[in-house]
Amino acid sequence: MAIFPQTKTGALPLAPAVPPLPSLRHIGPNWYATVMGTAIVATAGAALPVRVPGLRTVCVTVWALSAVLLVTVLAARAGHWLLHRDQARAHLRDAAVAPFYGCLPMALLAVGAATMAVGRDLVGHRAAVAVDAVLFTGGTVAALAAAVVIPYLMVVRHRPAPADASPVWLLPLVAPMVSAAVGPLLVPELPAGQWREALLLACYAMFGLSLLATLVVVPLVFARLLHQGPLPLAMTPTLFLVLGPLGQSTTAVNQLADVAPGAIGAPYTSAFGAFAVLYGVPVMGFALLWLALSAAMVVRAVRRGMRFTMTWWGFTFPVGTCVTGAAGLARHTGLDAYTWLAVALYALLVTAWAVAGVRTLGGLFSGALLPAPRPLRPATVRTR
Question: What is residue 277's predicted lDDT score, i.e. its pLDDT?
Fold first, then answer.
């Protein structure tokens, strides 16, 4: 005698054909890179030292998309922590995943900066300032926490070997540099005097914090490449992450020099302006060297069969910081060479963003990026 009743035709009942839903268990902190890479397209487009008809409207649209992405990823990550705390803790214990927690503050800061740069066209100046103030505050607190907590975990728990050195290690360290680069947008909004000067100097302090930490890690990454050879194919795009602190620090010194006259006394304003050029020019030169080296390594990896992974988003935000850095140098030097460098890098950024975006959507629809629970098998029948 069968346990489950049979239909009139004698066919056995099957489990309902419900399409499997993607599991939040597989949403890692690396997904914030999609927010960063999208927001920087809007910010970098607004920073270009040339006028392109229609570009401003496109940038506003991209900013709106980045805001939607931020809310979506924040909700997904909240669900990840609520429903899959074991996996979330495992991510923190994993030396390969933990550094990606630096992407959270950078996503907040990137959307906040884009709101001030172009989003104000849609929501108004006052609302843009309020949104950026909230995102900047939350992003800066999270950036400083990540810059301490993740290295602490690496020292006391992860204990990576020299051969494990990776550009991903830079993510939590470069987050305070993003705060230093976008903080100047809020300096003029503060009351003149102590408040403006405090924020200005706090941004310079975060610039120094991130810069010195980066100078410790980048030699480790380069030494690993020299002694151990190229990175695994899937990790090759992370080489572009080194461009992040280079481009972002150049952006920071130029942005800070722009707002210094209204925030600090005359003896320092001219010094900050000179420092922006004296620092930015050689650092941008090294960024171009690293860009060429990284591009050559990516071409090599593609020829050897490199497939799409979420690491491809590493082609976006770091390149975008170089766009804003070159645009800042164009303002302070007046050289057309930096103007066209910014335009060329922006074209590269948009291309990388489009490719990464299309491939990510394809991976989502196919289920390759978000493994779904296995579909239910047909119900079985037991007989005597």
Answer: 97
- What's the whole-number mean pLDDT along residues 308-336? 97
SS3 (DSSP) at 22? coil
Res 213 pLDDT > 70: yes
282-289: list long-range contacts, CB under 8 Å, 24+ apart.
Answer: 283/246, 283/249, 283/250, 283/325, 284/246, 284/247, 284/250, 284/322, 284/325, 284/326, 284/329, 284/341, 286/246, 287/243, 287/246, 287/247, 287/250, 287/322, 287/325
pLDDT at site 339 = 97
Which range, of 32-41, 182-191, 358-367, averages the lowest pLDDT? 358-367
Structure tokens at 238: 């992370």
**How far is it, in rounded angstroms, from Cα 49 to Cα 98?**
37
User: Could you give the angle at the alpha carbon of 365 between the alpha carbons of 37 and 28, nearest 5°?
Assistant: 50
Q: Is 113:132 a contact under the CB 8 Å cutoff?
A: yes
Helix axes 55-83, 32-47, angle to 10 degrees: 160
Q: What is the phi/psi pair of residue 325, to 5°?
A: -65, -45
Contacts of residue 328, defined as CB under 8 A and 6 or more positions apart, other chains included, come to 47, 250, 251, 253, 254, 255, 258, 276, 280
293 vs 204: CA distance, rounded Å: 30
Confidence of residue 369 (pLDDT cuts 50, 70, 90): confident
Tokens 């050559």 belong to residue: 296
The alpha carbon of residue 17 and the mean position of all alpha carbons in its chain are separated, in whole angstroms, by: 38
Where would I find the H helices in 186-316? 194-228, 243-259, 266-303
Q: What is the pLDDT of residue 368?
A: 81
Helices assigned H by DSSP within the chain: 32-47, 55-83, 85-93, 103-114, 120-123, 125-153, 171-182, 194-228, 243-259, 266-303, 317-333, 336-366
Task: Say what angle helices 243-259 and 194-228 make with each other, to 10 degrees.
Answer: 160
**Could you report the per-residue pLDDT of 228-267, keeping only the tens digit for each?**
999 999 999 999 999 999 999 999 999 999 999 999 988 8
Distance CA 314, CA 37 (A): 8
Residue type, 241: L
Distance CA 85, CA 87 (A): 5
Alpha-carbon torsion (221, 225, 227, 229), positive or negative = positive
Stated pTM of the model: 0.89
